[in-house]
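Summary of Year 1 activities. Much of the first year was spent building the evaluation harness for sequence design. The harness presents a backbone, in tokenized form, and records the residue chosen at every position. We chose the following record to illustrate the format because it has been used consistently in internal testing since the harness was completed.
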């Protein structure tokens, strides 16, 4: 969960900070996972735990060879820092971008690749980088290192690129993924709901996938929830995800 400041003014400042950086980071193919915001006198220290997309990592490797291009690539992010500083009326802002990619176990990632590679040609035929991002995010989700909402960002991109005929394949794929996570991760219960015009039908319907032990009616420290809207050619879909960790 994000670390939120205490009083009303701090809550507003927290919202301004998150809004300012979320959009620009997503546009730069960096997914913000967690914000830690601390205030020391007139200095705001912002730590953003982020997932760097595979395409971004490849691009960075190329840009590191050309320092001028790398400098241009960071100008928009720095501009947002100055805008936040002006709005909050503080002396300075210390920004730390912490990549969570370094938490990924490469041996486990190789196992995930072999397990789910059969879905590469079905759902990821045009984007191998997206398939690798899906593997990494699924691994991090199983180890409770990202939130359900962060994982839904990847699910939304996968679903957005599909034709209506592939909706059933998407559902079959994630039934398999959720079953695998129950067996080989820290998750003991999953509930996933899709609302929308599945298969291009004229009326919206609700599809529910529920695996393992989960109860959304009781308060549990290990129960996490996330939701997101997915805009497609066939209308707007709603994704909701509950996870119950061991």
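For this record, the design step produced the sequence shown next.
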């Amino acid at each position: 969960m994000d670390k939120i400041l205490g009083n009303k003014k701090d809550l507003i400042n927290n919202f301004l900070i998150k809004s300012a950086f979320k959009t620009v980071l997503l546009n730069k193919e960096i997914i913000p996972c967690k914000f830690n915001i601390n205030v020391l006198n007139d200095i705001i220290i912002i730590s953003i735990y982020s997932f760097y997309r595979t395409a971004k990592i490849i691009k960075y490797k190329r840009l590191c060879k050309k320092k001028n291009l790398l400098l241009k690539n960071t100008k928009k992010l720095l501009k947002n820092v100055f805008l936040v500083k002006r709005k909050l009326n503080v002396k300075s802002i210390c920004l730390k971008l912490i990549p969570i990619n370094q938490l990924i176990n490469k041996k486990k990632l190789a196992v995930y690749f072999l397990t789910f590679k059969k879905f590469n040609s079905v759902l990821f035929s045009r984007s191998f980088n997206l398939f690798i991002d899906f593997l990494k995010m699924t691994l991090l989700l199983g180890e409770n290192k990202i939130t359900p909402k962060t994982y839904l960002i990847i699910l939304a991109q996968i679903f957005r690129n599909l034709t209506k005929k592939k909706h059933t394949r998407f559902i079959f794929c994630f039934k398999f993924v959720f079953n695998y996570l129950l067996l080989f991760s820290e998750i003991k219960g999953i509930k996933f709901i899709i609302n929308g015009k599945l298969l291009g039908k004229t009326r919206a319907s609700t599809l529910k996938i529920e695996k393992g032990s989960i109860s959304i009616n009781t308060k549990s420290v290990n129960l996490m929830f996330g939701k997101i809207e997915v805009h497609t050619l066939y209308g707007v879909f709603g994704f909701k995800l509950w996870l119950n960790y061991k």
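The longest strand covers residues 30-40. Quantitative recovery figures across the full test set are reported in Table 2.
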